[in-house]
Amino acid sequence: MARTPNPAGQLVWLVQALTARELVEQLGIPVRRAGRLLGIAPSAVSQYVHGRRREGALAPLALRPDVRAAVHRVARALAEHPSDGTASARLLLEAAAELAPLVGGSDPSRAEAVRAERIDRATLAQLRERVAAEQAAVANCMQLAQKARDELTRAIFRQIASDSLRHAEIVASLAVYLESGLRRSRASGIERADVEELIRREKDAESQSSERLHRRFGGVMGLLAESMAADERKHERMLEGLLAEGFPD
User: Fold this and answer.
1) Are residues 92 and 143 in the same domain?
2) Residues 178 and 226 both lie in one domain
3) Burial profile 73-101: b = 16 or more Cβ within 10 angstroms, e = fewer
4) What is the Rg, in whole angstroms, of the alpha carbon atoms belonging to the chain?
5) DSSP secondary-structure letter at 24?
6) Rounded CA gap, 102 and 118, in Å?
7) Domain check: are 22 and 95 in the same one?
8) What local confidence, expressed as pLDDT, does residue 106 receive?
9) Same domain membership, residue 234 and residue 145
10) Of the residues 106, 130, 158, which one is the last residue of a structural domain?
11) 17 shares its domain with 72
């Protein structure tokens, strides 16, 4: 069975092909560097430049002044502010979203679909960067924990490492849900009454202490005690937020 053409995807490839030509033919950038700017292989750039890769049914759009202007802006941005492949993908998708109404008439749903794809890809790239950063933080904190000479100082770095590891797991889960097409989820397997009961117990436990624990200590001891108080405040906000947004109306 033949695949149904994807106009939005074809438009992205058209912008990429025209940008490759703009970089090489108009801005005089070598093929290898143009490939790095676009995040594609130099051989792909050569094929675009020499016309061995066709742009399909959208090729006539390449002659339009508004398309040429959009491609020129992308090429200039890449040449003047070189970055990684994520940045080039963002620029290409933004240009495709701008030109989407030209595909098959001014259908706003196509433009919206391209914008949604751009947002999702950019968010996924940010999530992957965050996972890597959190994993690096775990390694750094564990090294400092081993370097520390007392248990309380080690506890600080171990706690940060534990938090960073948990953050990495959360971000990885967010990426999985986003890749599956979900941008919003609801609580499952628990009832609103369960959360309300937990909030009540948390408040009862806190009210039994007339003075906050962290006020009795200083230095590293005070920092650890304050971290526990901050966790309690965070738990309260999370549970209240779960009641407000985690259950169907």
Assistant:
1) no
2) yes
3) bbbebbbeeeeeebbbbbbbbbbbbbbbe
4) 26
5) I
6) 18
7) yes
8) 44
9) yes
10) 106
11) yes
Handedness of CA 222, 228, 229, 234 (dihedral sign): positive
Please give the Cα distance from 210 to 138 (Å, whole number).
Answer: 36
- Tokens read off for 230: 């901050």
| Residue 240 shares a structural domain with residue 148 | yes
Q: Which residue has the tokens 């397997």?
A: 189
Question: Mean pLDDT for each consecutive 10-residue tract of the chain (249 residues)?
Answer: 49 84 90 86 85 59 82 88 65 78 54 60 85 91 94 94 90 80 81 92 68 73 87 89 85
Residue 30 lies in a domain: yes
pTM of the model: 0.51
Q: Which helix (H) or strand (E) holds 233?
A: helix 219-245
Alpha-carbon torsion, ordered 97, 99, 100, 104, to 10 deg: -170
Report whether 187 contacts 247 (CB < 8 A).
yes
**Nearest Cα to Cα of residue 22 among 64, 87, 101, 78:** 78
Same domain as 238, residue 145: yes
The range of the structural domain enclosing residue 73 comes to 7-106
Record the tokens describing residue 45, joined without a space. 């750039």
CB atoms within 10 A of CB 171: 19
Which pLDDT value is given to residue 103?
59
Query: 50 in a domain, yes or no?
Result: yes
Q: State how far the Cα of 235 lies from the Cα of 205, in Å rounded to an integer.
A: 13
In the chain, how many domains are there? 2
> Is 118 within the bounds of a domain?
no
CA atoms within 13 A on the CB side of 133: 8
Are 80 and 118 spatial neighbours (Cβ–Cβ below 8 Å)? no
Do 121 and 93 form a contact (C-beta atoms < 8 A)? yes
- What integer pLDDT is reported at residue 114 of this predicted model? 55
Residue 236 falls inside a structural domain: yes
